[in-house]
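Quick check before the chapter quiz. The format below is the same one you will see on the exam, so make sure you can read both the input and the output lines.
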Amino acid sequence: MLFRKSAPVMLGAIVTLSLFTGACATKKHVREAIAPVQGQVNEVSKKTETNTTAIGDLDRNVAKVDEKAMEADRKAGSAGESARMANQAADKAQQSANGAQQLAQQSLTKTGQLETAMGNMEKDNFQLASTEKVYFKTNHAELTTDEKAKLDSAVQSVTTAKNYVIEVEGYTDQTGPKSMNLDLGRRRAESVVRYLTVEKNIPLRKIHDVGVGADFPNAVNKTRDDRKENRRVDVKIYTLGNAGTTAQLQTGGQESR
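Here is the expected output.
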């Protein structure tokens, strides 16, 4: 009777124990099956971490290389700019040297020309080339329009010449005191010189002038025509080593009254 009452309890215990024992066996089997996989997973995780670290190191190295490359580019650019500036400075220096050489050569050339001109003047190699007469009104020293036209024609041939000299001599007739005639002759010569230098751009260094007055008349001064002929300024153009025209360039002067 007692056995009958305890039998269900024992059966339940046996079933429970069987289930527990089966469960333990299943868990052990699962663990044994999973262990290799877990090991592989762990290994992959370690390799992944290692690879991640290596990739990070590689990225940092690449970044450093890029930075160094950029720095190298900047230095190369700076060096290129410095080289360009150095080349420009060298070009300017060469240009300055060439300019100095040209100036020196020009100076030597001009010096040689001046020495030649001075030598020719000392040797009296200038020869009379052309003449003209321009006349003045009585007791006046102003050039008229017609007389200016004569001067224009006279100096036209020397505007492009280099080696020439112009002599300007102011004369009067013999009327009036000698001192007044000298002053009037000087003013007439200066009037011609002023026109040639200011209006015709003849260098002043090319011109030599003198007021002669009543001396060396072209006519005897007895008639009106004689006195008109004496109221003049003789302008004589000399060229270097050129026989040219032997006519005399004369600008008429004015009497002193």
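If your answer matched, good. The radius of gyration is 60 Å.
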